[in-house]
Amino acid sequence: MSKITWDNKSYLLGGERKFLVSGEFHYFRVPKEDWEKRLILLKEAGGNCVATYVPWILHEPVEGDIRFGDIPQRDLEDFLQLCKKLDLLVVCRPGPYQYSELKYDGLPGWLCENYQEILARDIHGNIFRGSSVSYLHPVFLEKVKKWFDVVNPILAKYMVAKEGPVAMVQIDNELMGIHEWYGGFDYNRDTMGFGTESGRYPVFLKNRYSNVESLNLAYGTSYGQFNEVYPLKDGNAKKSNETRRIKDYQDFYFQTISEYIYLLYKWMREAGIDCQIVHNSANPYMNSYFLEAVKLMGKDFLLGSDHYYNLNQDWNQNNPTPQYAINVYYSNEMLRLMGYPPTIFELPGGSLSDWPPITKEDLLCCYMTNMALGMKGSNYYIFTGGPNPEGASHHGDLYDYNASIGALGDIRPTYESQMIFGKFLEENAWLAGSDHMADFHIGLDWEQSRSSHYWNGKRGMGFSNSDAWKFLRKGLMTTAFCASYSCNLSDLSNPIVMEELDKPLVVATSACMSEMIQNNLVEFVKRGGKLILSPVIPQLDENFNPCTILSDYLMAGGSGRFEKTSPVISVGDVHNILMTGSLWVNESRPSEAQGIAFEETSGTEIGWKADFVGGGKVIWLGFQWSHAKHEHSDMLRCLLAKLECDKSMIRCSNPNVWTSIRSNGEKHMLFVMNLLSAKMTANIEVSRKGKDDIRLADIVLNPMEVKYFEIEGEIEL
Amino acid sequence: MSKITWDNKSYLLGGERKFLVSGEFHYFRVPKEDWEKRLILLKEAGGNCVATYVPWILHEPVEGDIRFGDIPQRDLEDFLQLCKKLDLLVVCRPGPYQYSELKYDGLPGWLCENYQEILARDIHGNIFRGSSVSYLHPVFLEKVKKWFDVVNPILAKYMVAKEGPVAMVQIDNELMGIHEWYGGFDYNRDTMGFGTESGRYPVFLKNRYSNVESLNLAYGTSYGQFNEVYPLKDGNAKKSNETRRIKDYQDFYFQTISEYIYLLYKWMREAGIDCQIVHNSANPYMNSYFLEAVKLMGKDFLLGSDHYYNLNQDWNQNNPTPQYAINVYYSNEMLRLMGYPPTIFELPGGSLSDWPPITKEDLLCCYMTNMALGMKGSNYYIFTGGPNPEGASHHGDLYDYNASIGALGDIRPTYESQMIFGKFLEENAWLAGSDHMADFHIGLDWEQSRSSHYWNGKRGMGFSNSDAWKFLRKGLMTTAFCASYSCNLSDLSNPIVMEELDKPLVVATSACMSEMIQNNLVEFVKRGGKLILSPVIPQLDENFNPCTILSDYLMAGGSGRFEKTSPVISVGDVHNILMTGSLWVNESRPSEAQGIAFEETSGTEIGWKADFVGGGKVIWLGFQWSHAKHEHSDMLRCLLAKLECDKSMIRCSNPNVWTSIRSNGEKHMLFVMNLLSAKMTANIEVSRKGKDDIRLADIVLNPMEVKYFEIEGEIEL
Which CATH code for domain B24-183+257-428? Predict the structure, then answer.
């Protein structure tokens, strides 16, 4: 088999940059006699990999009786041998969890029924549901270890390094989903060790605060010892010290997840699994829940994400939409910034629901949008199904999932979309090594993206992290796409932000920003960087303690909400901008600053620009918006113009048509997306270095159509 | 001008059934020199009516200084005369509220700034926002009366009865929106009279409970007098007596709205306004908030609704969708059941937001969908705009709204959709007198549709009203559309349900059902009706008191939730049905009943069918679903087959293509809707009496396309 490696740009198969094209293919569902025929269909659609769960519920039907190979549905090894024969890599997902519409989410029934002490609990001690466990519960771990002790050695025999097909093994499945969706964080007392000196939670607090006096100072409490401290209920905090306490619990909870990941990882490695260990975040908004794990595991781990657009009628969209594209964009960018080739371990191949339908047009649009926005590896969930093993599924005899290859082997219209996409990837293989080209950077403060549990914006502590995160997506990113600006996300906690000083950095700020990020931004400006901050200038660190490094350097004061009925907002020469969010004023500002934005009826300054020693320039704008009007685009252009950076590589005449340019340095591909239900036309210009602009006139895009154009010559930034 | 009358089928203009086609046209924004030109454009698009606000903020810029005619923007009378000249009816909306992106929602600034005692308050006494008033506050009413005393006599001069153009005058605008969206119910102490013997709230309680002992019994309290009673906070109830107390406050609040409507109505009538008085519910889900008003006002009032599909990026959909069609469907049906010709006083003509875009394809689809599902009158909001009067608007110099005729008079592509729709209405004028043809009836318990404030389904009191309401929309209605069944809603509180005994009646039940409805259903069965109840058999009345009229008649017991991991659900011969909601069992059932539905692994009966004296048949199914799979359609067909009523007028091969047949008894029109982003094809058969079925093969529908076919002959039910 090809050796598989990766960097944050792409996978390398046998040393060559390649796109990982996988299809979810359950040996325990697809009839054995159909395996080869359907695997060949996957290869014909461009597949070079298959993924499968190895369901605990199926292989250990009775406790202690772990079975492989006794019936065709348990013939894992035959399946792996066949994949090897067909030169297909394999991603194995031995759990413990599978989900996959299996009973008990894929855990054995005997485990959930006979050992209820392992179940996750809410803060009141209530069980969420019968199959949501507390990951680190000792009894659960003991049972998992026994399962792993059997399944892992089997997988280990088939490692790529041993000329086998298994290139990746996945730890668990969509971790935290079974908590998040059914109750919130897990507060299982035994797992978390509340009240006991050596318990996980007291130890975490001790590590964080060293002594209980510091904790009391932070929490406004008067505990005598760490083991007296219990978490506060998520959502109930009114004061910042309570909010901090909830945030601490979240940090702790995420740390337990990293501990769980590390433990399973260790067991895998001990069993001889020496391939890439991976995991799939359940969706874009959960990617940052894995920061602790990513930090702990480093390159010995690879996080991907799952990018569905619709699984039932309650989803916000029936088809891919611009809002979906924003999710895809930030998700892929997050994975890239974590150091991984953006991999979508579950890219829709169908849906359990027949309605709303998964159409071939929507699917192809989904694939191309993910591609245009940075996807480097993918796995169709599912490529094909089959009969559910008896007693293992919670619904139906057939697991069809409306997949492109039906449960009975029939070829569906959606297969055509996979063929087209596969062909596109084959013909444009160089895109595997491509980067997204950017006019400017949008700063990412990870903490903002995971703050909704502890700081939902309604707690009177200034502009919240979750509001900033919303502003980033619905304001900045959406406006950038509508204005045909190309942006990369930039990890603010990484000093690398300072490496591209020629490009402006736009940061959606909240009342809080860590010392590290404040220092990075100061350093960025000191070295001559161009920075736009909106809507506030933080005065606190991420734990709500005073921290004015950035504010002091800028010589700017704190920010207060500016309440005004019917404000008239002007930014530069863009007047009367629709208020779709909130306005903020600064208590003080750099003495040399120029006012650039005003609430006109009161003459109040809501934005300034200032120059700093070393050539750095800073714009502060006290306006948080949700993109609604073309004037929001004009405003962004105007701000960038004040930094002399308003030019964009791409000019698109139609704000409803979104674009992306990817390049490997030699070749350039322009993607043009219509994620709306009506036909769109657009004229597009792309700047080139030393050559005339490319002009693409009257591009017509059907609903859900993504077109692409290879651009000759070098793009002008 | 044509005399205008109406019944619940349609409007009649000069005695002829006609569709009311109106366009919102603000004389205070459209430049006077453009009035005629643009009104002619409206007429050319099929318009026979215009609607305009008469903004208080504009006409009373300083308290006591009410101005008309001094500047072109205040030339209401010239405008009305021009409409008369052009033979256009007028809907006037003199407020007090306008919204319309005017400052203070159209109230004068001096009123909101100088009389803050009039503002609505939450239960803690906090003001929601600076322009949300407490409608019945005496100071507010005093100011409104002075405004009305000037504006109403002007309008009265232009009544249709006096050969003027004014056919309708609207009371206020989207009542309760300024409460609902910014805080909830109004608890202004002065308005509601908490604590005072003659206060509105104590008097309401006295009328409801007669003596305080009855109230104490109902609330589990020990008050000495009615004026000691204060409302409980919405959302905090855990017990049924607390829930009842919150529901009482809601009933009281809705009653104050009816009192307010009546008062404004009276002032209008006193001023000589003798035309139709109307109001627009802000959206479908608020229609039932007006039941008290509808009951109080009778035919001297006409309620319509507003049917937007997208006004900004936070909406659940960017374009019309099947989910939107469900809203349109039940909204139009509700208005019809109230006795009105379903009128959409704000049908999208554009959007304040430039993005997501309002496209001509989406708009035409929206119009045709509303038409197919019962709309009989409409008003494009807005048809055309213009410069905002100085100081009156909270945003921008121009109020363009992306309307079909731009603020500067330019004709936009969306005008084409209005032309096409206008032409369709002209060519098919008979549709004004058409009814929707139905295979069966879906019962409407109004209370369910307005229960989310007091009973959100998380309160352990059995299957809630709001869950039943969700089941009705996402389960029953959606399944019916996907299965190409045609249904009418049937008002369960009206004995008229018994008039169509040949058609089955399907009722989504909650734990509560009023005595009146229980009696009506019993009577329906006694007379030979065929009834399907799902998922529970109510044991309580709407106030949570025991009420087992229906249960006793059926000889069936109460319902308990049936909790089972991975249940296997079968209904008739449809097996293994996807569980997308909840399961319920009956404590007891009619002894002669046949089991028709089971949880198979446990053998538990979750549905039965029983025959009753007089030929009535009842099916109870303990399954609440959200439509996801074709088997949900099969299940519905199976239930109807057990009542020998599974035939449908229409059979559509594609469940993603939805249909509607309208008929005036002589002519029949089939509407075929594709509300998805991909092209759809369908084969459709329509049954005819004494003739071959009509077969429409290979109908191809573009995304957002609605096609229509006139069907010859009589349709077979």
Answer: 3.20.20.80
Beta carbons of B318 and A314 less than 8 Å apart = no
Fold of the A4-187+261-433 domain: TIM Barrel (3.20.20)
The band of A500, judged by pLDDT with boundaries at 50, 70 and 90, is: confident
Please state, in angstroms and rounded to a whole number, the distance separating the CA atoms of residues B279 and B172. 7
Is the confidence at residue B1, as pLDDT, over 60?
A: no
* Inter-chain residue contact B678 with A319, CB threshold 8 Å: yes
B627–A355 CB contact, under 8 Å: yes
Distance CA A538, CA A536 (A): 6
Residue of B129, B566, B680 to mutate, interface with A, max A Cβ within 10 Å: B566
Question: Chain B residue with minimal CA distance to A475?
Answer: B313
What residues of A are in contact with residue B393 (Cβ under 8 Å)?
Answer: 566
Neighbours of B295 (CB within 10 A): 12
Mean pLDDT of A166-188: 96
What is the pLDDT at residue A459?
62
Q: Which residue of A has its CA nearest to B395?
A: A578
Question: What type of residue sits at position A226?
Answer: F
Residue with tokens 């904790």: A215
Domain ranges of chain B: 24-183+257-428, 440-646, 651-711
Read off the pLDDT of residues B341-393 as tens digits, 9 standing for 90 and up.
999 999 999 999 999 999 999 999 999 999 999 999 999 999 999 999 988 88
Q: Which pLDDT tens digit goes with each residue over A332-346?
A: 999 999 999 999 999
- DSSP assignment string, B3-49: -EEE-SS-EEETTEEE-EEEEEE-TTTS-GGGHHHHHHHHHHTT--E
3-class DSSP state of B625: coil
Mean pLDDT of A620-642: 97
B243-289 pLDDT tens trace: 999 999 999 999 999 999 999 999 999 999 999 999 999 999 999 99
Stretch among B489-498, B602-611, B633-642 having the lowest mean pLDDT = B489-498
Chain B residues in contact with A677 by the CB 8 A cut-off are 318-319, 359, 361-362, 676-677, 703-704
Asked if A677 lies within 8 A of B361 by C-beta distance, the reply is: yes
pLDDT of residue A391: 82
Chain B hits for A601, Cβ within 8 Å: none
CB B373 within 8 A of CB B660: yes
To 5 degrees, how large is the angle CA A84–CA A88–CA A94?
A: 85
The secondary structure element, H or E, covering residue B292 is helix B291-297
Whether CATH 2.160.20 fits B651-711: no
Output the CATH code of domain A440-647. Answer: 3.40.50.880
Measured in whole angstroms, the distance separating CA B136 from the mean position of its chain's CA atoms is 24
d(CA A657, CA A484) in angstroms, rounded, equals: 8
Nearest to B166 by CA among B46, B281, B291, B272: B272
Residue type at position B292: E
What is the third-level CATH fold of B440-646?
Answer: Rossmann fold (3.40.50)
Mutate to test the interface with B, among A102, A318, A470 (most CBs of B within 10 A): A318
